[in-house]
Design brief:
It contains 33 helices and 13 strands. Helices cover 58% and strands 8% of the residues.
């Protein structure tokens, strides 16, 4: 990011203001995270300083703010305990930082994409649960070890439940009152519009309230005095040199301890994951939608953790809370995060006396509410609603981390997620559906994108289910990889098993390297033999089934190039379809047909003329079609015009300028009850629409009657049982076609007369 952009007149005021606001939020959070991590509170402030200044300078993110994160508290507390001292833990932090730098240089910014979201959400929720359980004792004033001294660098070695049990006999009324009141303020802050819009952040308000109540209890309320053990204890330096003496150093004598490297790897993985996830979330919040380079961010975080480990701080990551505050406060460049780090440095060096007035219980309240946000009931409901394959890995990750440790919990979550993935892959490696083509039923099997040896059992089951004399289409059009074991199964079935059982095998979409060329053996178009074998009722059934496939999105797989070649020398249509010119009613699509299957006659209003009748006669008497279908449709424009002109004094030509439209209008009006159309212009839209659809249906019946009456050829073929004439209505909203036969047309005509 250019320096000129950071210090431009348009962004500088907003960055300075945002840096101040982020500082006010970060100060109590740095102390609170250190408290939750069983580390010295001073270490949390050091992490905030390094995260703001060092990471802020190196990072190329405009809005991300780094510092000690609530998501690492469980790891820090557990590793300090496991390694035995803060100094040994600092060495692990340095190693973790070096690993992060290596990951960044290796362009591993996409690391988070390899972890299932259910496990990541489970990790964050588990940290939230641990935060809540760990902070309950501090909220209620249980802040001392058995000897009565504060103990951060040396944890108490008690688990969460034993701490809660022990605190019941060691509550402090004053600290508990501050802690509980702080929780109430934090929960209600965003629910009160005036406070939510206030420039004062809720954590700062809680800290100020805690300091005020602490002073009040000390001077006015006997028995509730806040003692030193219940307050922040940041070292006070009398000089700059003395300040650096407070900084603990890593114990490099432990460099050969394997546990240090395990801890470092744990810190690197979790800190990197949290950083990458937060970075992605922050970029989405950025009003300018700028993209941060993820690998560069890993390098920045790694350098920050190396430095923070060398000077005695706890690990840093990109933090969503501070970053979102930065964006909401108007931060434009990374100057805002650098300013917040400088302000933290100033407060540590020159304001430690003021910091030591802050009660630990109000910091614990801030962390407890943060835990509630990480492990919210809304998140649990969301994961439940996403299904068992998401909820179980999520919940097992949460439970495992809380009951064991973070790495074991993540491992269990990943194992459960992998089990679901393998189960899904084994059970659904392919999609199969029986397609009813003109030449017979075909079992269409679509292979998955990745087909491995795990899918062999499923494929064997499909092959064994094919009846003798059946037909199967293996479709690899969407397949990127096929395991050699699967290829062997396919080759063996095609070349050995299928011929013995009389099964035809068609192939489609296989890559050249698999040595399985495309080969379609089934007939998916009309031939002379099929045309001669089918009856009118069978053709009608084919059209009904085709419309059902169209309507439900299950259209047949067709090889149009093969159909083009097969029909080049002749055609053998099954039906003649008379339909409207409406763009929403193409016959081949709404009946799911291929090339050469039908003759399609289209004219506005699907009316009859001598030319249309001649086309139909040729299609049936010469070309051999077995069925004539007259297809009307809802919301027909031609019928609407005929209805509107029925009560009008103007002709179609006068109203539209179309001089040849009048014969079409007059033909459609034969199906209209003229008196019922009086004053139609005053009808409601629904009434007019219902009338138009009713007239469209009667117009289809009228056309069917005229075909029989005006064509001796078609009438003769019908009497001989060689063809049939039926009507149909197509719904342009649902895509469904309602057929009505000659008998139903005659019955409805008789009823109407």
């Amino acid at each position: 990011m250019p320096t000129t952009e950071m210090f431009s007149r348009s962004t500088l005021p907003r960055d300075l203001n945002s840096g101040l606001v982020v500082f006010l939020v970060a100060l109590p959070l740095c102390l609170g995270v250190a408290l939750a991590s069983n580390a010295p509170l001073f270490s949390g402030l050091l992490a905030g300083i390094v995260g703001g200044i060092v990471v802020g300078i190196i990072s190329q993110s405009h809005t991300s703010v780094s510092g000690p994160a609530a998501g690492l508290t469980a790891i820090v507390a557990a590793q300090i305990t496991a390694l035995g001292s803060l100094e040994t833990f600092l060495l692990a932090v340095v190693i973790g930082g070096l690993i992060q730098v290596g990951l960044g240089l290796a362009n591993a910014g996409s690391l988070s994409a390899f972890f299932p979201s259910s496990v990541i959400k489970g990790l964050l929720a588990a940290i939230g649960v641990i935060l809540i359980l760990k902070q309950i004792p501090h909220v209620l004033g249980h802040d001392t070890d058995p000897e009565g001294e504060m103990s951060f660098s040396q944890p108490d070695h008690e688990n969460t439940l034993s701490e809660i049990y022990a605190m019941l006999g060691d509550l402090h009324p004053g600290a508990a009152a501050i802690g509980l009141l702080s929780i109430a303020v934090l929960l209600l802050w965003n629910k009160i519009p005036a406070l939510k819009k206030s420039s004062v952040p809720a954590p700062l308000a809680v800290v100020l309230m805690g300091v005020g109540l602490s002073r009040l209890f000390q001077h006015s309320v006997w028995g509730r005095e806040i003692e030193k053990s219940h307050l922040v204890q940041v070292p006070i330096a009398k000089s700059l040199g003395a300040f650096f003496e407070f900084l603990p150093r890593p114990d490099f004598s432990q460099w050969s301890n394997p546990a240090v490297y395990t801890a470092g790897l744990t810190i690197a993985i979790v800190a990197s994951l949290e950083t990458l996830l937060n970075l992605e979330a922050v970029d989405k919040l950025d009003p300018k939608q700028r993209t941060s380079p993820s690998s560069r961010e890993l390098v920045a975080q790694g350098i920050g953790n190396v430095l923070v480990g060398l000077i005695g701080g706890i690990p840093v990551t990109s933090v969503i809370v501070r970053s979102s505050v930065n964006i909401n406060a108007g931060g434009q460049t990374k100057l805002a995060t650098i300013v917040h780090g400088l302000l933290l440095l100033v407060s540590v060096m020159f304001l430690p006396v003021w910091l030591n007035m802050i009660p630990l219980s109000c910091l614990a309240a801030i962390l407890l509410v943060t835990g509630l946000k990480l492990a919210s009931p809304a998140l649990v409901r969301q994961m439940w609603n996403e299904g068992r394959d998401q909820f179980l890995p999520f919940m097992l990750t949460v439970v495992s981390i809380v009951l064991t440790d973070l790495l074991i919990g993540i491992g269990i979550g990943l194992a459960i997620s992998l089990a679901f993935i393998l189960r899904s892959n084994v059970r659904r490696p392919l999609r199969s559906i029986v397609e009813r083509h003109l030449g017979g039923d075909v079992l269409h099997v679509e292979l998955a994108n990745q087909v491995s040896f795990l899918n062999r059992a499923a494929l064997d089951q499909v092959f064994n289910s094919i009846r003798r004399g059946g037909h199967i289409l293996l479709d690899a059009s969407n397949t990127a990889y096929i395991d050699s074991d699967i290829l062997s199964v396919i080759h063996d079935f095609k070349e050995k098993t299928a011929p013995i059982r009389g099964v035809q095998v068609s192939l489609r979409g296989f890559r050249d390297k698999y040595k399985l060329r495309d080969e379609i053996q089934y007939v998916d178009y009309s031939t002379r033999d099929l045309q001669e074998l089918l009856t009118a009722s069978q053709v009608l059934q084919i059209l009904q089934e085709g419309n059902e496939r169209f309507r439900t999105g299950k259209r047949l797989t067709r090889d149009l190039e093969r159909q083009l070649q097969a029909t080049a020398m002749g055609q053998h249509p099954l039906a003649v379809i008379l339909s409207c010119i409406d763009s929403r009613t193409p016959a081949e699509l709404i009946f799911d047909l291929g090339l050469g299957d039908i003759f399609s006659v289209r004219i506005a209003g699907n009316i009859i003329s001598q030319n249309v009748l001649g086309s139909m006669e040729y299609g049936c008497a010469v070309a051999g079609a077995k069925l004539i279908v007259v297809v009307g449709h809802t919301q027909c424009g031609a019928v609407t015009a005929a209805v509107n002109f029925a009560g009008s004094l103007n002709s179609a030509e006068q109203a539209t300028g179309c001089q040849n439209l009048e014969p079409i209008i007059r033909e459609i009006q034969c199906a209209i009850d003229m008196p019922s159309c009086q004053h139609v212009e005053h009808w409601s839209a629904d009434q007019r629409a219902n009338l138009v659809d009713a007239v469209s249906r009667r117009n289809v019946m009228h056309t069917v009657e005229r075909i029989q009456r005006d064509s001796r050829t078609i009438n003769r073929l019908t009497q001989e049982g060689r063809i049939a004439v039926v009507g149909a209505m197509y719904d342009v909203v649902t895509g469904k076609i309602d057929f009505f036969t000659q008998e139903s047309v005659a019955a409805q005509s008789a009823a109407a007369s």
